[in-house]
Amino acid sequence: MSDERARQVTVVRAPAGYGKSTVLMQWANADPVRRFAWLTLEDTENDPALLWRYILLALQGLVPGFTDRVGGLDQPRPDLEEVITHAVNRLLEVPGRLVLVLDDYHVIANRRCHDSVQYFIDHLPRSTQVAFGTRTRPPLTLSRLEAGGMLLEIDRSALQFTPEETSRALENAGRRLRPEEVAGIHRETDGWPTGVYLTAVIDEARAAEGTAKRGAGAARTYLEEQMLDHLSEEDRSMLVTWSILRHLGPSLCDRVSDRSDSTARLERLSDANLLLVPLGPSGDWYRFHDLLADALRLEFGRLPAEQQQAAHRRAMEWWLENDDVPQSIHHAIEAGDYRIAEELICANWFQYMMGGWLGTLRRWIDRLPNEALIDYPPILVASAWIAAFSGDVTATRRMFSAASGEPYDGPMLDGSTS
Prior knowledge:
By secondary structure, the protein is α/β, with parallel strands linked by helices. The chain has helices spanning 20-30, 48-60, 80-92, 111-122, 143-147, 156-159, 163-172, 179-189, 193-201, 204-210, 216-226, 233-242, 250-257, 262-271, 290-300, 305-321, 325-335, 338-354, 358-366, 370-374, 377-390, 393-404, and strands at residues 9-13, 34-40, 97-103, 128-134, 151-154, 276-278, 286-288. The protein contains 22 helices and seven strands. A five-stranded parallel sheet has the order 2-3-4-1-5, with helices on both faces. α7 (163-172) packs across α8 (179-189), α16 (305-321) packs antiparallel against α17 and α18 packs parallel to α21 (377-390).
């Protein structure tokens, strides 16, 4: 991956638990020539304008002022080809080699997002690469690059542990097993790295009893049903509370779990190499391994409603204090603080709409209950305008009709009068 050839696209593709993010981070840390801009994608970024806003911000982390000279996203329906062309022209001026990492690309389902990324790839400067971490093959046309030797694909077979790697992983976890036991674990997990690591943390008595029964399915079951049982009650409660967060940072985790030792706990869990995946090479922020996140969120959903709402409310407050309105809106809705969510939407809807966030705005409004909409006429007005700009005539009429029937004397929070 770090060779000197002018490769332009790298695809690391495998199911969950094969270390895709780890491989990309190892490349970023070891490559002596290239600089890396990193973006871990979320399903909320299936809005093309929002996706490119975050891509440009990631590039700005490498090239200060990058976004200052790349305009065009401040329109209701931005011309993405124009935005991307400006970005490509700006990259031509940047010395050295750059890599844009788009990790978890499989969460992107919007065809317009894929088309915009395709356009970017088709016009990439020779000094710039795009690297994908994904569970599925990106729906992009890469045959020209492949024919020209400018595409590197790393799939599941390249990421599977060999028998020797399985043995070393078990030894590093303190498990010294007989060769036939190692061979059994390797065979049953099919070299699945997470399956091997999970097997390694089971106590020796259970390992001796169940070695022949282990495998990828058993490891997943263990992860979901057994690993949490071996945590202290305090650690388990903390992880379950953190599961509402897409990204985990020490200060945010402290606030959400109402404690002050998250830095040490995040480092300890990361060192275990099982529960947390660093976000980018800096290692300051993390996310849960996908296989664990679902189990934790399922358990969070069993908590009393008031406890769930309190956790989301603390997350909302932290994001507000750190000037991230979109995250604040998400957690306000989850906390049932609909009026706060509505006020935040009403204060920012026009700015976001001009930035091309129509899809995101409509998703937020769709998550609000009807009674909350009716109780706050400004959100009906904002919703009507958002629907109008989206081309949804039926929703526009419905929202304006509802707004006209509700008394409201104050101005809109964005400063407009209607």
